[in-house]
Amino acid sequence: MSAPAFSVAPLSLEQVRQLYRERLTADFRPEECKPLSRIEQAMRTGKYRSFGAAADGETLAYAFFVTLEGGLWLLDYLAVREDLRGSGLGSAFLRALQETALPADGRVLLETENPDWAQDAAEREHCLRRLRFYLRSGMTDTGVRAAVWGAEYRVLRFACGPAATADEAAEWYRQLYHEILPPPLYRFKVRVWTEEPY
């Protein structure tokens, strides 16, 4: 199966609500789903942007981003409609986002589970598949590693923005979480370090 043709467009608040209720809560584990009210509030204050890959009036894939001033973005959710997974749509959507929707001079990051912290071989393989997917889709490993709320991540960078050293990318990532979390939570729930990229 090959990826269908699609166009990238911003999602309205109503579209986000519908995707959240009908798809996002099925696409992600319950502990990964932040309350819809938080997403709505962030959208109203300009701190959240959402895009869809659309064809014939239907959203085939979606991407939600936390967006802060100065072009600092973090991918929050990315999912492809279940029957289209494995078709190449996810990679095509990520490339199209970089070409048409994301800020060309922005600092756009994403987190993916660190396979080095997997509990068993099956989980490690799942994490490696996801990491390889992002790398094939044009993302770059920044060398930044993080533990956030007990989850361990490799931090990747979209290719649409400026190049960065691991230390610079780590500072971008810290800045994101300083903006997102109150200081006490940041101190106790976020740990960031650097190592050689994958």
Helix content: 25-40%
Distance between the termini: 30 Å
Proper CATH architecture of the largest domain: 3-Layer(aba) Sandwich
Count the beta strands.
8
Strand content: 25-35%
CATH C-level label of the largest domain: Alpha Beta
Strand order of the largest sheet: 1-2-3-4-5-7-6-8
Q: In terms of structural class, how would the helical and strand content be classed?
A: alpha+beta
Number of domains: 2
**What would the principal axes of the Cα set say about the shape?**
globular
Low-confidence residue ranges: none
Whole-number mean pLDDT:
94
CATH fold call of the largest domain: Aminopeptidase
What summary fits the major beta sheet? 8 strands, mixed
SSE ordering: EHHEEEHEHEEHHE
